[in-house]
Amino acid sequence: MKIIVARYNYLLRKAVTGSKSVTLIDGRRITDLVEKYKIHITPISSFTLDDYYFEKK
To answer: How far is residue 12's CA from residue 33's CA, in Å, rounded to a whole number?
Structure first.
């Protein structure tokens, strides 16, 4: 399997149209699938600081 993290041009899409052995998946879709199926990732929590911490006194 080869993964190309880029957008595909028209010729590439046309070349694989109708192919059952090639599926084009762009970078955005890969990240969606990784997140959905939790493949090789560890979920984390993150926090943002309120404006209070950045106000000059």
So the answer is: 22
Q: Residue ranges of the domains in the chain?
A: 10-54
DSSP output for 16-27: HTT-SS-----H
Which pLDDT tens digit goes with each residue over 24-44? 777 888 889 998 998 888 888
Model pTM score: 0.45
Q: Are 32 and 50 in contact (CB under 8 A)?
A: no
Q: Do the Cβ atoms of 6 and 27 come closer than 8 Å? A: yes
Alpha-carbon separation of residue 43 from 9, 36, 38, 54 (angstroms):
33, 11, 8, 28
